[in-house]
Write a structure and sequence with these properties.
281 residues; alpha+beta; 14-stranded mixed beta sheet; 5 helices; 17% helix; DUF4292 domain-containing protein; DUF4292
């Protein structure tokens, strides 16, 4: 995988919300059912009741990035300690890590092992520079097929009041809300099994948007989890597609996540790296 493109992909996700074919023949995809008529509070309670539950999560990934006529792919590993830390390790060749992204409630760290540099930013600073409603919980929720409310960690049934709710079709409901700080609009398409089928975020002036689609729900191990995610990032002059395929999912193992930066690495700011990577393209 082109390392420059890989870093652009990671930074793109940070700015917006700032595996391969495993046992495919044996997958038993849990199909969506038609929606039932429900009042708002009951719908939201059912969504929370049916969300994916885990204390730790780990999975192999096949990551595919495409923009225009170019398409790049890489293997990766994703690990999550719920409500504490997320780590994505990109390994384009022979399992050798070239890029690592780490995030916890307070900090984002990106290690570029190829160029021996790193980015380390406080999430609060990222939000001030890029006011897009990003926080740790949003990223964790997007990766694990859960609804979220910007700036709120633990959701309860009464939080349905944050959303306007409507029925899109016989197969889907729509929940819509907005981030008070940034004005970013966000929402969720909910299927008849009370699962998130699609999440989206949109910049008010329509200059930037993201859709995060979930597909191929397979029990992992006893509750359906989407083994395929398709992400579309759109700005005024660029469109990027990211595909994630999950395999070898394991839950509730005993591990912790932390990160250390080698002393020989050179520090760069998030803004510096974005400027460097997008120059002369």
């Amino acid at each position: 995988m082109n390392y420059r493109k890989a870093i652009i992909f990671l930074l793109g996700l940070l700015v917006v919300v700032v595996g391969l074919h495993s046992c495919r023949a044996k997958k038993r995809i849990v199909a969506a059912a038609p929606v039932e008529e429900k009042v708002d509070v009951d719908l939201f309670a059912d969504i929370l009741e049916n969300q994916f539950i885990f204390s730790t999560f780990s999975s192999k990934l096949n990551l595919v990035l495409s923009s225009g006529t170019r398409s790049l792919s890489s293997k990766a590993n994703l690990k999550i300690v719920k409500d504490k830390a997320i780590q994505l390790s990109i390994q384009p060749l022979f399992g050798v890590e070239m890029i690592r992204l780490y995030a916890d409630r307070d900090t984002i760290v990106l290690l570029d092992r190829m160029n021996k540099r790193y980015v380390k930013e406080a999430i609060g600073d990222v939000r001030r520079i890029y006011p897009v409603g990003f926080d740790f919980h949003t990223l964790q929720s997007l990766l694990t097929n859960r609804v979220f409310i910007s700036g709120k960690m633990d959701l309860v049934d009464s939080d349905y009041e944050y959303f306007s709710t409507g029925q899109l079709s016989d197969m889907h409901y729509l929940l819509k809300s907005a981030d008070d700080g940034s004005g970013i609009e966000y929402g969720f398409t909910i299927d008849g099994n009370d699962r998130v089928a699609l999440a989206y975020l949109m910049e008010p002036e329509k200059n930037y948007s993201m859709s995060w689609k979930y597909d191929e729900f397979v029990k992992a191990p006893d509750r359906p989890f989407p083994h395929k995610m398709d992400i579309v990032l759109v700005s005024a002059n660029r469109k990027m597609n990211v595909g994630l395929e999950f395999s070898g999912i394991t839950l509730d193992e005993d591990f912790t996540l932390q990160i250390s930066v080698p002393g020989s690495y050179t520090r760069a700011t998030l803004a510096d790296v974005i400027k460097m990577l997008t120059a002369n393209r």
